[in-house]
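Researcher: Go.
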Amino acid sequence: METLKQISMSVVIKLGMSKAELPLTLKNEVEIMEERIKSEWTGIFSNSESGPVKIDWSGGEWTFSPQKRRVYRYRRHIGWSTPQTLPPCKIKAGSTNDLGYPGGRLFLFPGRKIWIDDYKITVKERKAIFYGTHSSFMLGTGRQFTATLTLSSDQDDDGVDHMMMVVVAQSEVDGEDDEVKVQDFVRVDRGDTLVSALL
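Model: Structure:
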């Protein structure tokens, strides 16, 4: 269970609040916590299904940017257009974030629109939990889900970090957990060093 101090620090970081009014000791701890989040959670993560995704975190806002994934659009009478990179998905606390179809791909619901309402970071457990809704054919209001990103505490034999995404969607009928999707990602960069062999 988190202490009041840890919860307060998480809220300051998550909402991107000013640290100017904080006591010096708390301000220093918040800055250390922010740096830890940036060092552990940002970078390029990849898997065989969705390809590489660059994750950025700044001022309480997450940005998930698909890398090297191209979308080809067909135009009438012209043929195939030039490749276009998928747009980034940005998630900010305190508002509903409409991620559209790119969010559906990111959160393992391809072909569905995604809205993220909130997220929670537990630095100690190395988890980020996203709470959202995806479009549903049966329900006009959408279907709720949680997506948990967990960084592995151990590196594999090659010294590579892993991140697991587990998405749990509630049943459209009785609200019980109904659908579970799992995807494993491998960190392919740390800072400016890119392991191109894994891309």
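Model: The longest strand covers residues 177-187.
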